[in-house]
């Protein structure tokens, strides 16, 4: 394991609260809620300051941790298999998107990687809240295209819209 990565994780502190104060988390939640009124998908945003020492020694990376969180938060457990997790690991400065099988089958890795890149550009500018909102809006557009709501249909809120700090 690389010493710089270990030190970043050990001294990560509480960056999630600094980069995402309560007002930002509220706006992110409102964006998720609004987006789920135009499609049959479910979007979850989770941010984690750092990995545990055990995970670091096991060489867990952001992508692997995102897949774990996807399962832990049961993002896969939606009626239309259209749940999407946006996972941000602050210590590694990495954002990952994990999508359930139905939406991933029609969208594919390239779209998720593009959205992650757009988000990371905002993060590099210190625009954390806006970076997450850009990601939510882009994912919402894809969900609206492939999983639109019918005229009289409502999207039952299967997963909480509230952002999660792990």
UniProtKB/TrEMBL annotation:
InterPro entries, per the entry: TPM_dom
A Pfam family that the UniProt record links to this protein: TPM_phosphatase
Domain TPM: start-end pairs: 19-140
PANTHER family reported for this sequence: BLL7265 PROTEIN, UPF0603 PROTEIN YGCG
Protein name, per record: TPM domain-containing protein
